[in-house]
Design brief:
The chain has 197 residues and is of the alpha/beta class. Helix 5 links the parallel strand 3 and strand 4 (131-135). It has helices at residues 9-39, 58-67, 85-91, 94-104, 118-127, 139-149, 166-170, 181-184, and strands at 46-49, 81-83, 111-115, 131-135, 154-158, 176-179. The chain contains eight helices and six strands, in the order H-E-H-E-H-H-E-H-E-H-E-H-E-H.
Length: 197
Amino acid sequence: MFGQISGRAWGVLAAERTALNLLSRMSGVATATRALADAIAGYKAKIVCTRKTTPGLRVLEKEAVRLGGGANHRFGLDDAMLIKDNHVALAGGVRQALERARRHAGHLVKIELEVDTLDQLAKALEVGVDAVLLDNMIPETLRRAVAMVDGRAVTEASGRITLETVPAIAATGVDLISSGWITHSAPILDLGLDIAE
């Protein structure tokens, strides 16, 4: 793979390292995303990234995920409400956390709840939720969770997502599979710049 650029020597050399670092990083993110997306081809699930991005590079990394065949989760805290385990603990339970969130959410704001157990999921479905993040569940538990939801909410699997585990996770019928790894730990693609004589 190669590309060509032209310009004054001092300008090209001054920008070389920064440009190569960014291209190497974003190419690595896109490549990691493509590997996961290819591993679940044929299933309905989509690979999505998380907000675990490099400070200052979120927009570029999220674009690299899209170019690699994935989709984006939230860009920031204002895109939607994601109620995590600490929020549930502070609110006093799943029902209380969801009811409080619903009171403060605008009519267009989606609410997603992270659940670790099927019991938490059952409580969330009683109250009503737009999406559930099924955290660190084994495939059999994920399959049961998807059956419980039965289309009433978007299902998202998260935790322990690797090239080896992702096909079994996708086979459970989840809608989304989120991976922080594709943005925070993807290996770079080693790129270089050679001056043509």
